[in-house]
Amino acid sequence: MRVDQFVSQATGMPRSEAVKVIRWGQVLVDGVKITKTSTHIDPTAEVLLDDETIVLPGDIYLMLHKPVGVVSATEDVEHQTVMDLIDHPHRHTLHVVGRLDKDTTGLLLITNDGDWSHRITAPKSHVPKTYLATLAWALTEEGAEQLRAGVQLHGEKGLTKPAEVEILPDQQARITISEGKYHQVKRMFAAVGNRVGSLHRERIGEWVLDAALAPGEWKVLNRDSSD
Ligand code: URA
């Protein structure tokens, strides 16, 4: 890969900035000063910028316990974003896998692997997502049956796909859906005459929110295990 591309990806600086530091002689590759920005280097080479080793980010997979009040975006002019909570050296390479509403808490996956996030969020993948909803009124068995069978959401074609629904004490319900329409869970409960007071995502596919993570905390995911 080109040396300016390497420096930009490894540090997060824009390519124009990387070009400058290379031209100014601040970059050594395997002990040799490189000043020509188009030079091709081995991605496994030892690269120093101002005498500090810099490395490519590689594939990164994180799990975050999203707290209430932050938005699931990389940048936002008005609100704190989930990325503001991620103190990671390669933070600049990361994006959020799907979204949660500002007032929804729970599991959020974050990565720099676009293929992986696409596989999880693509509608045809039907990856199940489980939410714990605290409702305005206790869910009736009839309401649960309607949700299981599929309900009509305003402005959508056809019914929602079959969902798993569990009625819990204290006006709570657990629901698993395999779609990701806008505000889907809140709209589904509204369609059966209820209202979501608070919503918490517990699971996406094989990934379950680690109970040891407090709201706002995150950890690196080991993709070979189903934590
Ligand atoms: N469904 C919603 O209504 N909100 C979320 O944040 C996630 C799913």
List keywords for this structure.
Alpha-Beta Plaits, alpha+beta, 227 residues, 5 helices, Structural Genomics Hypothetical 15.5 Kd Protein In mrcA-pckA Intergenic Region, Chain A, 4-stranded antiparallel beta sheet, binds uracil, 13 strands
**CATH structural architecture of the largest domain:** 2-Layer Sandwich
Overall number of structural domains = 3
Q: Give the CA-based shape.
A: elongated
Count of individual beta strands = 13
Low-confidence stretches: none
Commentary on this structure:
- By secondary structure, this protein is of the alpha+beta class.
- The chain has three domains: 3-54, RNA-binding S4 domain (Structural Genomics Hypothetical 15.5 Kd Protein In mrcA-pckA Intergenic Region, Chain A, Roll); 57-126 and 213-227, Pseudouridine synthase I, catalytic domain, N-terminal subdomain (Alpha-Beta Plaits, 2-Layer Sandwich); 128-204, 2-Layer Sandwich (Alpha-Beta Plaits), CATH 3.30.70.1560.
- The protein contains five helices and 13 strands.
- The strands form two sheets. Strands 5, 6, 7, 8, 9, 10, 11, 12 and 13 form a nine-stranded mixed sheet that branches. A four-stranded antiparallel sheet has the order 2-1-3-4.
- The mean pLDDT is 95.
- The chain binds uracil.
- Uracil binds at residues 100-101, 104, 183-186, 199.
- Uracil binds next to helix 5.
Short account of what is shown:
By secondary structure, the protein is an alpha+beta fold. The chain is built from five helices and 13 strands.
